[in-house]
Amino acid sequence: MTSLEIRNSIRKLREQLPALEADARSADSATSDRARLEMARVGGNIDALEESLDAVLAEEADVRAQGGVPVFGDSGRAQSTAARDVASMVLGPRDAFGGMAVDRMVPIRAEAATGNTGNTAYNPDMGLFQPTEERRGLPVYDMTGLSPFLSTLQTGTCDGDVKYYRATKMANNAATFKKGQAGDKAESSIEWTPVTANMEILAHWVPVSKVDTARYSNLATIINSQLMVGLQLKRDAAALWGDTTGGIKGVCKDAAISKYTKKDGDTIADHARRMITKSVMATGMYPDHVCISPEAKEAMDLLKDSDGTYLRLTLGGTTWGLPVVEDVNMAQTSGSTTKHGMLVYNSHAATWLTADQTALSVGLVDRQFVNNAFTLLAESSHALMVPYPESFVLLDDCMPAQASA
Questions:
Q1: Which comes out higher in pLDDT, residue 296 or 356?
Q2: What phi, psi does 166 have (nearest 5°)?
Q3: pLDDT tens digit sequence for 306-356
């Protein structure tokens, strides 16, 4: 890139910052977090471009200082501009050569040295291989628009395993009591069962080269797109399907939640409506979310009547008045069969607890010291409380079983 191209790229990136700064001040935490991550990425790209700008300006200054032509003694004779190899580029035509100047550097552009033959790997005229440009910037993993199951639950903190009480049965005997009536007022009872929410550490690491540790934009991408996204996906999977001994028991693996068996002839939308009723009748709490896989959401969106007209049951991202949460973890594959679960629930019926916030550390593993490499480790620890399990109504498969791709 020329210095002008680099400056234009920097200018375009800086034009994005005011809008991102406004989003970062948003009251919506999801919008604010996405904006801050994007600001970090844009800032890293600006830093990298500004670093390369200095080197390009110095190179262009050298070319201008040398006149942008090969360095050789001026014999006053006419010189041909056609160069067949690198030597003729430096020394000039044989019939015009008058001796080579001493202590002067000749800048040679790579594309000129290779004859600018496009994607040809080898230029027989010059005897040089075409250069391969290496772009060290890393692709960003964009999760914009995805709000998985875990993002809907209420959150809290803990110091380790948590013992709590779970409501398992309520005998509601509330009745009228008249003035002067003999006997006691009606007695109701609630059964509470002691349960332990086990804390579990979730962690993973990635190797990085020593070169990348000195590049802000690359480090920001590794941290935001690999480490943080990886942990987020694992946390969400644990909240739904976790079944580690002594660890997090995911909602769908909890034997105390409500189960729903689909009725023949019902559509996906029918399942959701019947499950809402089941959740209300079991707890008295009205559910506020429906969680399904992206494939199941697609099937719901494409429902049609007998005339082929779309029913449009998920306008505004809701169905039957409840927000539809798309979560890839609701598609569970076993062997060659994939089941698309559906979960209807009240988000206040469970609490995701954090014992240790996400921490990032750098260290060495095995022979990394002699291989100019490091290890980036990210980890956090959590527990899941489900005091009202019957609010969660699970349908194992809301679509016919199908072979996995």
A1: 296
A2: -110, 130
A3: 888 888 888 788 999 999 999 999 999 988 889 999 999 999 999 999 988
pLDDT classification of 178: cutoffs 50, 70, 90: confident
Can you point out the beta strands (E) in 255-385?
258-259, 289-292, 318-319, 322-326, 331-334, 337-340, 342-345, 351-363, 373-385
3-state secondary structure of 357: strand
Q: Residue 177 to residues 38, 56, 170, 174, 184: CA-CA distances in angstroms?
A: 62, 89, 20, 9, 9
CA distance 205 to 215: 18
Neighbours of 110 (CB within 10 A): 11
pLDDT of res. 110: 44
Q: State the CB neighbour count (10 A cutoff) for residue 395.
A: 24
Q: Which residues contact 180 (CB under 8 A, 6 or more apart)?
A: none
Name the nearest CA neighbour of 215 among 20, 41, 363.
Answer: 41
Q: Integer distance in angstroms from the first to the last C-alpha of the chain?
A: 42
* pLDDT of the residue at 42: 84
- Quote the CA–CA distance of 297 and 307 in Å, as a whole number: 21
Residue whose C-alpha is closest to residue 126's, from 164, 165, 181, 86: 86
- Report the candidate in 107, 106, 133 with the shortest Cα–Cα distance to residue 118: 133
Distance CA 391, CA 315 (A): 25
Single pTM value for the model: 0.60
Residue in the block written with tokens 């349960």: 195
Name the 3-class secondary structure at 206: strand
Do residues 104 and 71 lie in contact, with contact meaning Cβ atoms separated by under 8 Å? yes
Q: If you search the block for the tokens 């594309």, which residue do you land on?
A: 111
If 0-12 CB within 10 Å is exposed, 13-18 middle and 19+ buried, where does residue 7 land?
Answer: middle
Q: Quick check: helix, strand or coil at residue 16?
A: helix
* Mean pLDDT of the 166-180 span: 79
Q: Give the chain's radius of gyration (CA, Å).
A: 33
Token duo for residue 270:
């029918």
Is the per-residue pLDDT at 219 higher than 90?
no
Distances in Å between the Cα of 327 and the Cα atoms of 143, 151, 258, 332 are 12, 10, 20, 11
Q: How far apart (Å, rounded) are the C-alpha atoms in residues 384 and 251?
A: 9
